[in-house]
Design a protein that fits this description.
The protein has helices at residues 3-16, 21-32, 37-54, 57-67, 72-84, 87-95, 115-128, 156-159, 161-168. It has nine helices and no strands. Helix 2 (21-32) packs parallel to helix 7 and helix 3 packs across helix 5 (72-84). The longest helix has 18 residues, at 37-54. It starts with a helix and ends with a helix. The chain is mainly α.
């Protein structure tokens, strides 16, 4: 499993689910079951790598604006939604979180999709018949704090004006 195949699976699951984030979770699980157990583990490692890359103050500000607030758990779920949108949306958002103003659809709700982060572990359990406690754990950077410059709730709209205009306007 490499990054190219990781994104191919994300895209295939999104397209098969007709861009419905919640349906994508099930579709991704079905696609992961077609892989070997070690490939599922590697997919999960790549998922963790992308979650860590997205752990940035600007993206947290985007999640805050879109959702009308965002806890640390909510932000983790937001990164699942963002990864589910595919490589192009993900990479563009890393460079410019305000770009998400043109991405969020009504079906996305608050843009929090926790299940996509757990799909590899569930698929691995089903594939191997082993308990989830045996699934190899990958390190998330959430304990170290987000990258970038922090923001104040009173100034977050100025940081991402397109998102603020769309969701707070």
């Amino acid at each position: 499993m490499d990054k190219k195949n990781f994104w191919k699976l994300i895209d295939a699951s999104r397209l098969a689910a007709d861009n419905d984030p919640e349906a994508q979770v099930d579709t991704l699980g079905e696609l992961l079951l077609q892989l070997e157990a070690d490939e599922i583990v590697e997919f999960d490692r790549l998922m963790a790598e992308h979650v860590n890359r997205a752990y940035h103050w600007d993206l947290w500000a985007a999640a805050y604006i879109i959702g009308g607030g965002c806890s640390d758990d909510g932000f983790m779920d937001f990164t699942g939604w963002l990864i589910g949108k595919g490589e192009q949306v993900f990479e563009t958002a890393l460079r410019d979180a305000d770009s998400l103003a043109g991405v969020v659809d009504e079906i996305d709700d608050e843009c929090q999709v926790e299940g996509i982060l757990y799909a590899p572990g569930k698929a691995w359990e089903e594939k191997t018949g082993r308990p989830g406690d045996d699934f190899p754990q990958h390190t998330y950077a959430f304990q170290n704090g987000p990258h970038g410059e922090s923001w104040d709730e009173d100034a977050v709209d100025a940081r991402l004006p397109r998102l603020a205009a769309r969701f707070n306007g």
